[in-house]
Amino acid sequence: MFLARTDKRFFFLCLAASQFLFILFLYRRGVSSVFQGVFGARPQWDYSKTQDVYTNLSLFIPDPETVRTQYCPITSPILVGPLSIALTKAPNLKKIQLKNRYVTPGGYFSPRHCFGRYRTAVIIPHRNRESHLRTLLYYLHPFLQRQQLHYAIFVVHQAGNATFNRAKLLNIGVREALRYDDWDCLILHDVDLIPENDYNLYICDEYYPKHLSSAMDKFQYSLPYWTYFGGVSAVTPDQFMKMNGFPNTYWGWGGEDDDIAMRIRLSGMSMTRTPLSMGRYKMIPHDRDSGNEENSHRHNQLRSTRKMWRDDGMNSLDFRLLSREKTQLYTNITVDIGEAPVMPTEPSRWRLF
Ligand code: UD2
Ligand code: MN
């Protein structure tokens, strides 16, 4: 039967409306769920069923007789997905060491039965957060071992009481970490963020900087805004140098993450992200630290990123190294990074800082 012209119109209108509703239905859990729904990828993770982060690691106790002959598989066979995380009490260092017997001084690890396919350096900016650091080390070491990475952990410690400078510490961490090994991937990691899913691999995207902490509990497991790049990210040394590293001039809390997001674009790259379903993190609850007060210049600074990024970064990095020390669970780098300059009110003069 042929439909009358008005019936036809009504029919197509209904069809379009139902398709629109269907897309809205898929979209309610984020863009990645549309692809998963349509292309039949991995089902949503069930975060009510979690496993201990040390599960199965004992399967990889090295046999002294065995000689490594092969690379580890591309995807580690012992990943478990959602992990149990308890943030009540930070474990002591002794306990963490006992649980991670194959981590060598400096916080190094290399899979024993196969050659690690990826070389990853984790860099953590730090001051006065010892209990957070212990919690992170407790969860991160087994997490990285499950992924069968060749890795090391570097903690960059800002000495003194001057205003904190997260991005400058990360620049220093990169420069220092590259003295130790030829890393494929640099993971820039807040001390208080614990990954909840071990399929969130700590390896880099071949082409673009990657944001790993796409879904944090403090933002109800969604992105606070589209260009957000705070928390945990992964860049190759080449990508890092291409954007001249991070800015050195953001003293105190805020703004540096948005500057980083802008320099990615300004240097001709884009940003990739772990899908929200996997990029989940718990942040250890905390108040704002003293010495890390809000940076009141950040909005003005962000207006001049376009002019500044080529001059402010790895090529202008200067600091005083106070010590390099290999502790059992990480390499500690203590630095004097100076003090926040008194900012002139005229933004065109900021180039001098
Ligand atoms: C958010 C971002 C963070 C950064 C910051 C603004 C999240 C989860 N993270 O963190 O990436 O963009 O805003 O600067 O949204 N730290 C110390 N000692 C201090 C102060 C800071 O170790 O006294 C380090 C530590 O690694 C910490 C990080 O700096 O995780 C960021 O500082 P924060 O945790 O106080 O700021 P937060 O949670 O708002
Ligand atoms: Mn925090």
Written account of the structure:
This protein has two domains: 1-42; 48-286 and 293-336, Alpha-Beta Complex (Spore Coat Polysaccharide Biosynthesis Protein SpsA, Chain A), CATH 3.90.550. It contains nine helices and twelve strands. It has helices at 5-27, 31-39, 93-99, 130-146, 166-180, 237-242, 256-266, 298-303, 305-308, and strands at residues 108-109, 119-126, 150-158, 185-189, 193-195, 210-211, 215-216, 232-235, 272-273, 280-283, 320-326, 331-336. Strand 2 (119-126), helix 4 (130-146) and strand 3 (150-158) form a beta-alpha-beta unit. Residues 27-40 have low confidence and may be disordered. It binds uridine-diphosphate-N-acetylgalactosamine and manganese (II) ion (MN). The site of uridine-diphosphate-N-acetylgalactosamine has 23 residues, from strand 2 and helix 7. Uridine-diphosphate-N-acetylgalactosamine binds at residues 124-129, 164, 166, 190-193, 216, 230-231, 253-254, 256-257, 283, 289, 291-292.
